[in-house]
Each structure stands twice: as structure tokens, then as C-alpha cells.
Amino acid sequence: MPTFVRRRIVSSAIPLVVVVLGVFCLARLTGDPAKLYLPLSATPEMRTEFLARNGFDRPVLSQLLDYLGNVFTFDFGESLRTGQSAAGMALRAFPATLQLAGTTMLLAIVGAIVIGSWAAYRPNSVADRIASLLSMTAGSMPDFWFAIMGVLIFAVTLGWLPTSGVVGGPEVWVLPVITLLIRPFGVLVQVVRGSMVTALSAPYVKVARSKGASEPRVVFGHALRNAAPPVLTVAGDLTVGLVNGAVVVETIFGWPGIGKLMIDSILQRDFAVLQAAVLVTAVTIFALNILIDLCHALLDARVRQVVPA
Amino acid sequence: MSSTSTVALDVEGLSVDIRTPAGTARAVDGVGFSVRSGQTLALLGESGCGKSMTAQAIVGLLDPVAHVSDGAVRLDGTDLLTLDRAARRRLAGPGISIVFQDALTALNPVQTVGAQLAEPFRIHRGLSRRAARKRAMELMERVGIPDAGARMSAYPHQFSGGMRQRLLIAMAVALDPSVLLADEPTTALDVTIQSQIMELLRELRAERDMAVVLITHDLAVVAEQADHVVVMYAGRVVEAGPVKEVFAEPRHPYTKGLLESMPERVGRGTGLQSIKGSPPDLHSIPGGCVYQDRCPMVRDRCRTERPRLTVVDAEAGSDHSAACHFSEELAHA
Ligand SMILES: Nc1ncnc2c1ncn2[C@@H]1O[C@H](COP(=O)(O)OP(=O)(O)OP(=O)(O)O)[C@@H](O)[C@H]1O
Ligand code: SF4
Ligand SMILES: [Mg+2]
After folding, report:
1. Whether A302 contacts chain B with CB within 8 A
2. Which residue has the least CA distance to atom 5 on ligand 2?
3. 8-state DSSP, B284
4. How many domains does chain A have?
5. Interface confidence (ipTM) of the complex
6. Ligand 1 in reach of B232 Cβ (< 6 A)
7. Using CB atoms within 10 A of its CB, is residue A250 exposed (0-12), middle (13-18) or buried (19+)?
8. In this structure, which long-range contacts are made by residues B117-122, counting pairs with CB atoms below 8 Å and at least 24 apart in sequence?
9. Could you list the pLDDT tens digit for every one of the 333 residues in chain B?
10. Whole-structure pTM over 0.90, yes or no?
């Protein structure tokens, strides 16, 4: 494995370790873990039995070792609500979130590249000003507000689109995707535009034109790849934001993903499931960061060069 | 000087305007010259006098703030300025091409040099990736890059400054253009490398019978490299002619000043900073002669009447010309 990948894995793993330990502490810092895990109606006997069964009465260090063992085997015990394995529930909910985030980001990135490049091609033209104004507005729109307005107008008042759920045709995707799309799209258009303005004014662009390259070849063959790194970085952060922020949109639209699972487990004090959901999310974000770095390295040979630490 | 060779590039009355926050300014004003195949014309002048603007106007690569407001640029008889974009693109490479000053930024940092060298063949000859790659490799060998086969898949940052300049030159001559412009191709390089690059340009010019326009502010380079010289000042041509004649007997006070500021022993990298004062601001070019504020010979007439570029000695049959009312006073000086 190339050195830069190894180095990056190590540095991205730090936040992951923090989350893992954080979850462990959280379960214990709040005082009585039995209160956290068991329903409010639990009897004192049930609590003692629960503490003993889960080893909460043992020394903290051995609890930590057990917990780490569980993390590595991805075993968080059973859900209070369903009795199913908590890890299984988290893993089953996760694809729905990933699909939603993936579709959204794909549309946002492709759209932003087209609009952003178009605006950057003639900086300060009327087209550029319009694109900048609209993307700035979109980039600062709170998504929950848009989600609620969307449901009110298109689902409740007009009845054109379903309010929630993933059962049904492609129309169930419309409102959640648009809601999630608006802000990342706005932000990305601005990043693409800025980055492309710089790239298009670089001398190598002139050289490409001096070789008789067509304008699409100049823009997409030469400039875009040079403009890509900041876009990639911001798109990565936005994707992380989408996965983290899935809670709001999934709740509003009843989308059965990890965000909704988290909210449901919090509301129903289903701590084992919450724990599994948090860790699945953390691992995904870790993997995403590595993926972004690999993309950076693919795009630019200078990144691949091993810089002595 | 072979007068048998044909005129490859003929520039006439070329003017370029730039839009700045302070208003429109004329950066290039009525510049004209012509270059024959197999010969080198040097465009000489201080920084900011409009050499690069002239070159970029000729190849049609001006920045959006600048545009050609007048003139003609004839390449093998065809006026490039009357062609549409597609027709100009077809000539970019096989007809006319340019080498830029800073080879690091002129090469695309994220593409292999092999891909960049192959690009002219892909665009104009429609060669397959493989065939274009082969041509690119031959080209790399031709410009003297050792181990070309292995270095095809290297990136620009893995080459030295001199090698990068060789790559740029290779790209520019890939399709045997009739005219090659070189905009200060060696300023960023050290002295030994500079002469190697100049040598390479000379060889390529001879072997491909190209007309070369060499932009420089180095008098020594002009002396050893060029057949003709065009001296520019504040966007205008102030003197032009065969290098030997112009250097032996400059007929414009500016050229004379430049030559006098050159050290006894001609060394490379001699800047043109030694004349007192500085060129006028483009937004407030004085009426009359552009050089009046720095000219030791200035008179009243210079402030009111613009001197035209005229042949200095009509009987001599040479095209040595100067734009000075009193140029005959410099004869045999
Ligand atoms: N993008 C631009 N915007 C505004 N003014 C410009 C721009 N580019 C060039 N100029 C001005 O146009 C004039 C001519 O510039 P040009 O680059 O042709 O000079 P040059 O002779 O090539 O100088 P150098 O030897 O420094 O390369 C200069 O006065 C410069 O300040
Ligand atoms: S015209 Fe006058 S100011 Fe201009 S160069 Fe000649 S003598 Fe000097
Ligand atoms: Mg220049």
C-alpha cells in the first residue's frame, strides 16, 4: 500500500477511535447504564439482573476490553424494542441513507460542474452573475425549512408527491433528494466556479488553445482536472454532512435510514441500537475520507509523491 | 539573407486595446513587420512595451481584457484576423504556434508529458492514441530529452526547468508550423541552459524552415540569434531593420540608448533598465513622439507631431527604418 494511503488511514482513524471511546464513556457517564438501556418501567430486580448480565458491575478496564471486543466483532447486543441484533438493524437501515446521500451528491456534483464551469467560462458575464446569485441563495438555505415547505406545498396542498416513505415509485425520491440537494449544490457551484476561473486563466490553458484544442477539450480536458481538488474536498465534507444530517430529513420524510433509526432509538431509549448506528456512521465517514484521498491521488501525481514527514 | 525564401508572417498596423478600470488603453499601436521562412526576427523592448500582447494577438490568444482593434496578420498570405474561430483553430499548431516564457505553468501539471506532447497529433492528425504516442516520443528524443521512452509517463514537475522548456518547444514544433513565436523562452533559466535552448531553436528553425519571432529583452540574444530586429517602445515600433545595420548604426535615440547601455563585453541576461526614466503610462501616452520624456534629443516638434516609421536611407535599398523626426542626425554618429 502506498505510503500516503497508510499515513492517511492512520490520521483518519483518530476521530474514529474518539467516537468509539466516546460511545463507551457516554453509556457510563450518565450514571446508571441500566437507566439508559432499560425502559422507565423496569423494576429494581430487572436492573440488577441487567447490570450483572452486561458486566456493568465489573471493573471499568475489563468492561472497556469487552466493549472493544464487541466493537470489533460488531456486536452491540439486542434492541430493546425489537429484540433483534442492534448491529443488524443499523446495517439494514444504512443502505437507505447511503442511497439518498449518494443520489443527492451525484446530482449535486454533476450539476455543479456544468453550471459552475459555465459561469466560470465568462467571469462577470450576466450568466455568471445569475448563477452566482442563485447558488449563493441555495447554499445558504436551511434544508429543514425547505423540507417542511416542500411537504406542505407539494404533498399536503397540491397532493402531487407522497409525504413520506420509500414504498412506491421514483416519486418518493423527489422531495427528499431536492431538499438535500439544494444546499450542497449551491455550495458546490461556487466552489467549481472559483476553482475553474483560476484554472481557466492558467498558462497551460493558453498552451492547450495554441495547440488548436477545441473549447470543450480545453474546459473539460485541461482545466477541470486541475480545478477538481477543492471541489472534491468540499464534496467530501458535504457528503459527511449529509450522512450526519440525515436525522432531520429522514424524520421529516419518514425515510427508513440510519438517521430515522437514531431518532427512534433515542426517543425509545434503545441505547444498543443508537450505539450501533453511531458507529456505523463513524466508520462510513472514515471510509469516505480515505476514498476522497485516493481520488486526490488519482487526479494529481504530485499528491502521490511521498513527502518526507 | 536569402530573399528567395517567402514571407511566412506579415503583420500590418496591428493595434491592441485593453480595458482596465482606468479606461481603455492602447497597448499595441500600429505594429508591423514581416518574417521570411527560415529566418528569425527579434522583438526587442523593455518590460511592458507590448511584446507579449503583440505575440498573443498574432496567435489569437489574448486575455479577455484585450482585443485587436485594427490591423492584419497574414500567415502565408491569409489574414488570420478575418478567419472564424474554427478556421483559426485548424491553423493553431500546423500553421503557427507559440512557446511561452514560464515552462512550469505552461505545462499542465496533472497530465503526463507524453499525453501533452501527443495532443497536437491527436487534435490535428486524428492519430490513434498509440500512433500519437509514438510521434510524441520521437519528438521528445528530437528536442534532446534523454530516456524519452521511460519519461513519457512522467509529469512536468519531475523535469528540470531546461527540460520543461524543451518539452514546450517540442509541443510547439510538433506539426511543423510555418511560423513559431517564442516569448522570452529562456528568461527563467540559467545561462548555460539558455544557450542550449537557443541552439535548439536555431537547429529546429533551420531543419524545418520555420519563420521564428523571438521575443526578448536581451541584446546579446538578438545579436547572435536574429536576422531582423523590431524595437518596440510603449506599444509602438520605434526602429526596425536587419540586426547588423540596426546595431551598427541605430537611427532612433531609444535604440542608441539601449546599445550604449550594453556592457563592453556582451554578456547574456543584460537587462534594458539602464536608460534614465521609465516608459509612459499607457493611459497617458503623450501626443507626438512616445519617447519624448526620455529623449536626449527632444525638441518642440517632438511634442506635437507623431514621427512615422520611415526608411532611413532610401538609396541603400535596405528596409532599416526608424520613427524619429531627427533620425538622420544619428547617421554616421
Ligand atoms: N491582463 C492585463 N490587464 C491589464 N493590462 C495588461 C494586461 N496584460 C498586459 N497589460 C499591460 O499591457 C502592456 C503590455 O504588456 P505585455 O505583457 O505585452 O508587455 P511585454 O512587453 O511582454 O513585457 P514583459 O517583457 O514584461 O513580458 C503592459 O503595460 C501591461 O501592463
Ligand atoms: S522624435 Fe524627437 S523625442 Fe522622439 S525620438 Fe526623435 S528626437 Fe527623440
Ligand atoms: Mg511579455
Report:
1. yes
2. B324
3. G
4. 1
5. 0.91
6. no
7. buried
8. B117/B152, B117/B167, B117/B170, B117/B171, B117/B174, B119/A208, B119/A211, B119/A213, B119/B171, B120/A211, B120/A212, B120/B93, B120/B171, B120/B174, B120/B175, B121/B174, B121/B175
9. 445 689 999 999 999 999 999 999 999 999 999 999 999 999 999 999 999 999 999 999 999 899 999 999 999 999 999 999 999 999 999 999 999 988 889 999 999 999 999 999 999 999 999 999 999 999 999 999 999 999 999 999 999 999 999 999 999 999 999 999 999 998 878 889 999 999 999 999 999 999 999 999 889 999 999 999 999 999 999 999 999 999 999 999 999 999 988 765 445 554 554 678 888 998 889 999 999 999 999 999 999 999 999 999 888 888 999 999 999 999 876
10. no
- The CATH number linked to A140 is 1.10.3720.10
Query: Domain residues for A154?
Result: 95-269+284-299
**A155 found inside a domain:** yes
Q: Report if residue A174 sits inside a domain.
A: yes
Cβ atoms < 10 Å from Cβ of A234? 19
Distance CA B136, CA B139 (A): 5
Residues A213, B123: C-beta atoms closer than 8 Å: yes
Q: Is the CB of B64 under 6 A from ligand 1?
A: no
Q: Do B157 and A302 touch (CB under 8 A)?
A: yes
Note whether A3 and A306 are within 8 A (CB). yes
Residue A295 inside a domain? The answer is yes
Whether A303 and chain B come into contact, CB under 8 Å, resolves to no
Q: Which residues does A167 contact at the CB level (< 8 Å), separation at least 6?
A: none
Residue type, position A290, single letter: I
Instruction: Quote the strand ranges of B159-275, DSSP E.
Output: 179-183, 211-216, 228-233, 236-242
Sequence-distant (6+) residues with CB within 8 A of B262 are B219, B220, B270
- List, in sequence order, every residue forming a beta bridge with B242; answer none if it has no partner: B228
Nearest to B57 by CA among B173, B208, B213, B185: B213
To the nearest whole Å, the CA of A124 is away from the closest chain B CA by 11
In a domain, A83, yes or no: no
State how far residue A10 is from chain B, nearest Cα, in angstroms: 27
The CA-atom distances, in angstroms, between B83 and each of B29, B64, B90 are 22, 18, 10
How far apart CA A121 and CA A196 sit, in angstroms, is 8
**What amino acid is encoded at A187 in this protein?**
V
* CA distance linking residue B2 with residue B205, whole number of Å: 14
